[in-house]
Amino acid sequence: MDSPVVSFLIVNYKVAELVHQAIQSIQKHVSTPYEIIVFDNASDDGSVEKLTDRYRHTRVIASAENIGFGRGNNEAYRYSKGAFIFLLNPDTILVDDSVDRMVRFMQDAPNMGLVSPRLLYEDGSLQRSIRKFYSFYGSLFDNRFMNPVIARFPVLTRWLPGMVNHHRSQYIDWAKGAALLIRREVIDQIGLFDPRFFIYGEEIDLCYRIGQAGWDKVYLNSCKIIHLEGKSTIQASARMFIMNYKGLYLFLKKHFDRNTLIQYHNRVWWMSRLLLLLSFRNEARKSLYKDLIVWHAEEGKDIAFL
Q1: What is the CA radius of gyration of the chain?
Q2: pLDDT higher than threshold 80 for residue 237
Q3: Which one of 50, 214, 219, 281 has the fewest beta carbons within 10 angstroms of its own beta carbon?
Q4: Is 40 left (phi over 0), alpha (psi -120 to 50) or beta?
Q5: Which candidate, 258, 242, 247, places its Cα nearest to that of 293?
Q6: Is the pLDDT of residue 220 over 60?
Q7: Cα 182–80–51 angle (5° rounding)?
Q8: What's the per-residue H, E or C state across the chain?
Q9: pLDDT for 272-290, tens place per residue?
């Protein structure tokens, strides 16, 4: 086997069949010399055995405990050899030569630290995956409630604050961590993921640090990967809902002034109660917002004020 140019890092938690699908798509569509490293987060469904038996040339690392997405990638990185690191979610499918083109693009741009592809849903529709760093007014429009509206009317990105047009290649603030190509030199300089982020927020922090270190970050609209969003985290959806907020709290505390975090904390107070009222006919949503209110009053308060 040729020395790997690209190291694919995949963190698995009880989704061996999705990992199988992702690996098959790599084998089918990537011609650049590569290696695949799978870090298993203490799955108890036979994932390690299934993947080890199927893929003799894939390194599968079994963890005795679930250490999270960020730390799982950090551990996988320790075994990698490629000049370029491709962080790939297990619920992704490569569909053409996009990875090869992303690698060539980075090879031709010595100051390019990170490249993100266009993410698509399974039906081929656009999945919004690039964003600006947090601002109060920008976050009022760039959120899970407005995303379906923006997807239907992309022209709104011209006027709404904080919005990004996904239909053109561009320099970016940060990109969703489902599929990211990163230069090894960047990771050696600034590290990979901050272990304080269990899941969610770690890619925002990484992109922020890459920019602070002087590296470029680009979104390539012509390169595409399918992302079956949430297929792994849906196994603990209530917990993941809270972790999403915790990730942003930790990011704001690390990189922004204290007033910004407290302002966001106060906004979550009002938003969680409003959404609870609006969810009176949906018991599942009511439960999520009740959990958020409890978390906000306890751990969220501690993060914001301690």
Answers
A1: 19
A2: no
A3: 281
A4: beta
A5: 242
A6: yes
A7: 110
A8: CCCCCEEEEEEECCCHHHHHHHHHHHHHHCCCCEEEEEEECCCCCCHHHHHHHHCCCCEEEECCCCCCHHHHHHHHHHCCCCCEEEEECCCEEECCCHHHHHHHHHHCCCCEEEEEEEEECCCCCEECCEECCCCHHHHHHCCCCCHHHHHHCHHHHHCCCCCCCCCCCEECCEECCCEEEEEHHHHHHHCCCCCCCCCCCHHHHHHHHHHHCCCEEEEEEEEEEEECCCCCHHHHHHHHHHHHHHHHHHHHHHHCCHHHHHHHHHHHHHHHHHHHHHCCCCHHHHHHHHHHHHHHHHHHHHHHHC
A9: 999 899 888 889 889 999 9
Both tokens of 143, joined, read 């959120």
Residues in the chain: 306
106, two tokens: 């980075």
Q: Are 114 and 137 in contact (CB under 8 A)?
A: no
Residue 150: per-residue pLDDT: 67
Q: How far apart are CA 39 and CA 15, in angstroms?
A: 12
Please write the tens of the pLDDT for every residue from 5-61. Answer: 999 999 999 999 999 999 999 999 999 999 999 999 999 888 999 999 999 889 999
- Six-digit token pair at 285? 């949503």
Phi, psi of 115 (to 5 degrees): -130, 135
Amino acid sitting at position 101? R
Strands 112-120 and 179-183: antiparallel
pLDDT of residue 165: 86
Pick 152 or 77 by higher pLDDT.
77
| Confidence at residue 88, expressed as pLDDT on a 0 to 100 scale | 98
Residues 172-208 as b/e (b if ≥16 CB within 10 A, e otherwise) read: bbbbbbbbbbbbbebbeeeebbbebbbbbbbbbbbbb
Q: How far apart are CA 155 and CA 222, in angstroms?
A: 19
